[in-house]
Amino acid sequence: MNIIKNILRNVTTIRSGISNVQGINIRSLSVAPFNPIQKIENTPPNNVELDKLYKRIELEMRGIDPAVMLSYSWFCVAAASHLGIQVTKNWAMRKSEKERHTLLKCVHIYKKHRVQYEVRTYFRFIHLQRVTGSTCDTYLEYIERNLPEGCALKVTKVECVKLPEHITPPNKEE
Description:
Shape: flat
Helix content: 25-40%
CATH architecture of one domain: 2-Layer Sandwich
Distance between the termini: 106 Å
Strand content: 35-45%
CATH topology of one domain: Alpha-Beta Plaits
Number of helices: 3
Structural class: alpha+beta
Largest sheet: 5 strands, antiparallel
Radius of gyration: 35 Å
Order of helices and strands: HEEEHEEEHE
């Protein structure tokens, strides 16, 4: 009980200012003066950077397994629909690209004993339309992070750009 009274006495002396408890100098915590929130100035409209607009984004997927490619294309279309991106086309090539390599079974002799290896590459294409730059960046980062093994992704963007000032429309009088 005696210890509790000492602690409470020390707490009250700490709150009142500088005190000396058992040879230790204790200083009360100081509170910084309160500053009201300063008004943020609006930036002028000339310095505002506008978001890019893409007329079309073409995704070309290459892979060695057609089932994985189909599943990944479904994933890409579902992700696009969740972000409100319009998917205009989603198709696959009818035939795969075949790359054949012929090797001899034995390097030194027996020229007629050969082995052929074949690598098939399957393609899928997705076209997205009317996408803003921030949405495009978010979408592409998401689908690139979830790209399955054995697949490659090629992205082509068609950007809408303002007509340069030095180009003027033709006169209708002529």
